[in-house]
Amino acid sequence: MINVILSGANGKMGHTVANMIKEKQGIEVCAGIDVHTEAYGDFPIVSVPRELPPTGDVIIDFSNPAALLTLLPFAAERQIPAVICTTGLGKEHHSLLEAVSKEIPVFFSANMSLGMNLLIELAKKATAILDGAFDIEIVEKHHNRKLDAPSGTAMAIADAIAEQREKPSEYIYDRHSVRRSRGKQEIGIHAVRGGTIVGEHEVIFAGNDEIITIGHSAMSRDIFAVGAVRAATFIVDKPAGIYNMRDLIEAQA
């Protein structure tokens, strides 16, 4: 039995993950962490990691970047593998991920959807073929309560595209402030916030007289929960290091 500590247990994704795990065999939520400690299952929810009982084989985190500053050192101290699904991380958080990964296995992906990670791979292949002849733009859409913009997934797509180019890329987030023609190495990144959009990402390759688009739409939060639970079962017995969705996909191929 794999015992999961669920960070962000009372958030929407926390509830989604808990409900999904309830239907599975060989894995269960043993405790949760959240500033709101109202229990809704047969596991306790505490406000800070140090209040957790001495159990737990893996942490699944859908909280917020600030929570990682205490959660990751706690995970390293207790030697508990961690699946970090929180987005909007800054340099400080990524540095902490790197440091902690020297002591425990850490799984991190800007998007836990298998389909989205396939989109990233397709965008990389398209860039390798089309770069230089096509302009590249990324449009992401999310619900009106999402705090970070652009999304972490949009930035992951941009970074993956940039890695495929021979020349450095320039990320452009806002065109209204600069009056100039579009540069060849630009990657335009645009954020839309509204309603209850779960998540949509589109990569546009615009050439002379033709346009190629690669897109992904999340119809529910379940797809992210599926990826998180798969990551938890994948990482629980791995050695220290940083793992991502590509590692998971390759292991299941």
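That was protein one. Protein two is written in the same sequence-then-structure order:
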Amino acid sequence: MIPRVVTLLICTVLQICFGTVYAWSFFQSLLVRQLGWTFTDTAVAFSITIFSLGMSAAWAGAALPRLGPRKLAVIGSLMFAVGYLIAGLALQIDNLLLFYLGYGVIGGAGIGLGYVTPVATAAKWFPDRKGLATGIVVMGFGVGAFLLSKLLAPVLIVNTAGDLPFVFIWLGVIFACILIPSSLLLRDPPVGFRMETADTVSELQEADDTGSVKECLRSREFVTMWLVFFFNIAAGISVISFQSSLLQDVWGIADPSIGPEKLAEYGATLIAISSLCNGAGRLFWGILSDHIGRVRVFRILLASQMVVFGILMTESNPWIFSALVCYILLCFGGGFATMPSFIVDVFGAKRMSVMYGAILTAWAAAGIFGPIYVGYLKDQYNDRAVIYCFLIGVLILWLGFVFSYLLNDERVRLFRPSTERTLRQYGIGSSK
């Protein structure tokens, strides 16, 4: 049997590759300059990717118990790599719709199949340290953008003389060579696997729980968690999708003498550093949520970002602007680290893959809403886009903060009376 630490490493490698999607703004300005696409065009490509990701993740969560992690991960890896190959062909013939199909629909769906699998699998292997394990895995998703924007993509651009079609094709080949062998090693823990530190109440509840997934999906708890998750993602992803161009706007106003090449370099550096913050936030907030609770973490994330977005509305210093963007990415990653453990706490480990997949539809919805409204603002109100972007972000975060007060860390009680009797026999108490 592969040690669970090795399994955790495999899950993290998969997430690093899939997480390169967050380096999208690295390519965005290049596509606008080289192919003449608008910012709205490029925003739609990213939105389609995130929407396909979220919807396929919902299906993958339901299919994971039946198909197993290895099969889903392999399929997702193949689709992700093929998506890049098709995107390269689309760039070669300058076909925007084909690019949407390849990079957006096929590649995005591949990420969704691949994203759920490592997170759910890591949670099964580490029931004693859910926040830490899922935090490490999703940290890889955040770090992926750093590796692509500062290492892999620049090297490929230099070696292909800036030929974007070949850059995308090479990325597809490289990801296939890493992802497929790693996916073949992924598997669930053996039957009977358990940790001695596992909570007795959870084990008893899991053994006798007959509440259906449909009941959970209709519950007030799920709907509220979905909304809070959506608002946190929508605010963050609006910044992720345009952070490079937004910084270039701010820096260009602060120092008009800087040329476009230097501005692009500054933008790429911000992508790299903020992606590290995205990854670090997934680990930091995931561990913190184990100690202070999932709901409290979400309230801190939402409230602190409201302040930061308010400052960013009028901030003209590019250094302070960059630091605040990095904090937003820290909080953005924190939501993804906290939610898997939150799902387990509220709905139980047996339902984790299905419920987590379903809640990732919030990611899909936010992926449509966030990038498109920022792309529209940049095309229509370029000189005021920064102010409008962050003003809308404040409103989004405020709504999430309000809804967070409808949440608590208690488990949804969908158990037979026999469970309550068993719990009382152990002197634990009764379910609410």
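The chain is about 80% helix and 0% strand. Keep this in mind for the problem set.
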